Structures are given as C-alpha cells and as structure tokens.
C-alpha cells in the first residue's frame, strides 16, 4: 500500500516547461516530451509564445506575447516568463533555451529542481549566425556561452541533450541523451494528404535557411525538370533569401506549402517519394541527428542527404549520400532514383524497419520518464 501511494504521489509531480524561443507546439517540447509526461500521469504546464491561455492534449499552456525583436525576447520576455513560472509553484522547472540559463540558475538558487534541455550545440551554432557580422565577435560569444553553459550544468539537477556529441560537453553523472526520434504512433495514425499527384514528389520539411542547402536543392530542380516536383515546408530565415530562391530556374518545379502543423507535415510526407536533407558541413550539423530524416524514414521514404561521415555511419543503407554543394550531383542521383522506383521502395522499407527496431520516440521516451522518476 505504501509503495502504491508513493508511486501515485510521484506521478502527480507538477512540471513546468519553459521556452521563449521555440513555438508552442514544437515537436520535441510539446508533442514528445510534454505529452509523454501527461500520458504518464504528470501535471504539465508549458510557458511559451502563444495567442491565448488554454489546455491542449492535457498540457496547460500559459501564453507569452510575441516580442518585437530579439532584444525584447531576451531581456523582457524571459523575465516575464520567470515571474509566471514562479507563480506555478512547480516541482521541476524544465527549460529549453540557452538564453534562459540565467533564469535556470536563479531558480536553482531559490531551491528549485531544474533541468536544462539542450537541442543543439549552441557555441558551434553561434559561429554560423549571419546576424552576428563579425567573426571575432561570434567566437567571443561562443566562448562566453560555453562558459555559462558549463557553470549552469554544475548547478542544474539534470542536463538533457539531443545527441551524443553534445553530451560530451557536460558532466556524465547528470547528463541524459534524449534523441529526437519520430513518434511512430502519431505518424501511423495520420492519413495521407488528399492530393492527386501526377509526378513524383521530393519533400523537404524544416527551416528554410541558406546553410540547410535550400538554394542548392532548388537549383537541382532545374536539372530534374518536370520529372518531379519539389515541396518545401517551413519558415524562411529571411524574405531576401526566399526571393533569391524564387528567382532560380528550378523554382518553377517547386511548390512552397508554408509553415504547417506537425500532423500536416506527416500528411504530405506520406504521399511523397523522396525526403531530402542537404545541410552544409558546418560544425553544428556534422554530428547532428536531424529529426526530419527520422520522420522521412518513418514514412518509408528514401532519404537523399549530405555525405557527412557520421550520417553515413548512422543511416547506412537507408539513404543516398551526396555533396550538398553540388546541385548537378543532387539532380543526377535523384534522377537515378526516379528511374529506379524499386530501389526507392526497398531503401524506404529499410529505413522504416530501422525506425521500428532502433529509432522510435516510443522507446526513447522511457529515458525521460526515468529522469522524473529519479527526481
């Protein structure tokens, strides 16, 4: 009887998720972590930029306003969120943005249990930030952020990281690798989009940025021509970059579908033929585990991706690896696949099996539950 009572009390733990950067319905934060904890019986509140306070899929959402600029987000929104977070009297505070590290440290000094969730290697990421024009300022900023992260890691109860490479930066005794794998149940319960296609579809879903090779993908469509159609889903980093891509010859074979919900993304993936991920070989990407690749594979799509050694090791025979800087080579390999549909089907099935056997969120989520069980 005592064991059951202890278990029930533990499951009523109040968890506060906090982000000022990521969207409310972020795949990792909302659909994976928060909803998994709700299903396990925890009380979960999410503070994030949103248009209203509401409860969605059991997660209580407390809305933050959209800031006018980056400065207001860091120095205004963060502190407003901090006040709202304290008002919740949570048992554990789980935050997701490096700009909230100071908030996390303050919460820890107030006696709270704090988890820092690291989605990317932030110091490496800063080195490729175009909005910081001076490379020396980028290096200084990356160095400072690294020091701040290390100080925070010493204080926080746990550090949750998205890849093994990021984990190497933090103390082993409190770091947990929680990889961004696909939610098979959500994908399998999603119906394909109601769309009658008349040619094969190449799909890209994610941030539409220069260093993710979007321009080169569109350029490749010039050589692929009307033998296929490229679908882009996501947000453009800049309107200027969008116009640059729209002026390319390959754009007439490209369709931009906008920024859509996760379920809609899966609906489109389910009628596509090839998933593509042509990230540039910048430090932050070389050892990354891109969630969209796992989602392509879960939808039984063959994946065309950058020829990083780490990616070749992880994805092996489930993908085709290409130089991301070479639109002609991208087109050449895609045309080969389009002319060999049996290769696409067999490779897509291998990817799906790999997801089922090794890379599903259903299995990975047990690590998250163990964190909270131990806390």
How is this fold's topology laid out?
Elements: H1 2-11, E1 14-23, H2 27-39, E2 43-49, E3 54-56, E4 59-64, H3 70-87, E5 92-95, H4 101-109, E6 113-118, H5 122-126, H6 135-155, E7 158-161, H7 164-167, E8 175-177, H8 184-188, E9 201-205, H9 214-224, E10 229-233, H10 239-246, E11 254-256, H11 262-269, E12 274-277, H12 283-286, H13 291-298, E13 302-306, H14 309-315, E14 319-322, H15 327-338, H16 341-357, H17 361-374
Would you summarize the structure shown here?
The protein has helices at 2-11, 27-39, 70-87, 101-109, 122-126, 135-155, 164-167, 184-188, 214-224, 239-246, 262-269, 283-286, 291-298, 309-315, 327-338, 341-357, 361-374; strands at residues 14-23, 43-49, 54-56, 59-64, 92-95, 113-118, 158-161, 175-177, 201-205, 229-233, 254-256, 274-277, 302-306, 319-322.
Q: Which superfamily, in CATH terms, is the homologous superfamily of the largest domain?
A: Glycogen Phosphorylase B
What is the percent of helical residues?
Answer: 40-55%
The count of domains is: 2
SS content category:
alpha/beta
pLDDT averaged residue by residue: 92
Using the coordinates shown, work out and report the CATH topology of the largest domain: Rossmann fold
Number of strands: 14
Name the shape in a single word: globular
Structure annotation, total helices: 17
Share of β-strand residues: 15-25%
Strand order of the largest sheet: 3-4-2-1-5-6-7-8
Distance between the termini: 21 Å
Top-tier CATH class of the largest domain: Alpha Beta
Low-confidence regions:
1-9
CATH architecture annotation name of the largest domain: 3-Layer(aba) Sandwich
Indicate the radius of gyration in whole angstroms: 21 Å
């Amino acid at each position: 009887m005592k064991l059951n009572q202890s278990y029930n009390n533990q499951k009523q733990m109040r968890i506060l998720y906090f982000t000022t950067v990521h969207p409310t319905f972020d795949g990792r934060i909302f659909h994976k972590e928060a909803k998994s904890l709700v299903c396990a019986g925890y009380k979960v509140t999410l503070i994030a930029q949103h248009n209203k306070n509401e409860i969605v899929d059991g997660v209580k959402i407390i809305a933050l306003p959209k800031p006018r600029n980056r400065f207001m987000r860091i120095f205004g929104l963060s502190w407003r969120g901090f006040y709202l977070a304290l008002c919740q009297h949570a048992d554990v505070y789980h935050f997701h943005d490096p700009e909230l590290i100071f908030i996390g440290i303050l919460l820890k000094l107030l006696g709270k249990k704090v988890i820092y969730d690291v989605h990317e290697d932030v110091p490496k990421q800063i080195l490729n930030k175009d909005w910081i024009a001076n490379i020396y300022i980028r290096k200084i900023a990356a160095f400072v952020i690294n020091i701040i992260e290390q100080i925070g890691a010493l204080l926080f109860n746990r550090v949750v990281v998205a890849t093994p490479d990021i984990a190497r930066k933090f103390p082993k005794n409190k770091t947990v690798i929680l990889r961004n794998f696909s939610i098979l149940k959500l994908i399998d319960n999603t119906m394909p989009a109601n769309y009658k296609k008349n040619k094969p579809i190449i799909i890209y879903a994610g941030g539409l940025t220069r260093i993710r090779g979007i321009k080169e993908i569109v350029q490749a469509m010039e050589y692929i021509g009307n033998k296929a159609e490229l679908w882009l889903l996501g947000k453009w980093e800049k309107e200027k970059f969008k116009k640059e891509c729209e002026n390319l010859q390959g754009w007439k074979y490209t369709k931009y579908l906008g920024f859509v919900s996760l379920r809609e993304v899966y609906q489109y993936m389910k009628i596509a033929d090839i998933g593509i991920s042509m990230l540039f070989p910048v430090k932050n990407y070389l050892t990354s585990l891109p969630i969209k690749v796992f989602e392509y594979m879960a939808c039984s799509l063959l994946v065309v991706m950058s020829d990083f050694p780490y990616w070749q090791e992880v994805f092996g025979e489930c993908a085709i690896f290409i130089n991301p800087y070479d639109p002609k080579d991208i087109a050449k390999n895609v045309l080969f696949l389009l002319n060999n549909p049996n290769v696409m089907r067999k490779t897509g099935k291998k990817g799906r099996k790999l997801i089922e056997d090794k890379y599903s969120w259903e299995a990975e989520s047990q690590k998250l539950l163990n964190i909270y069980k131990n806390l």
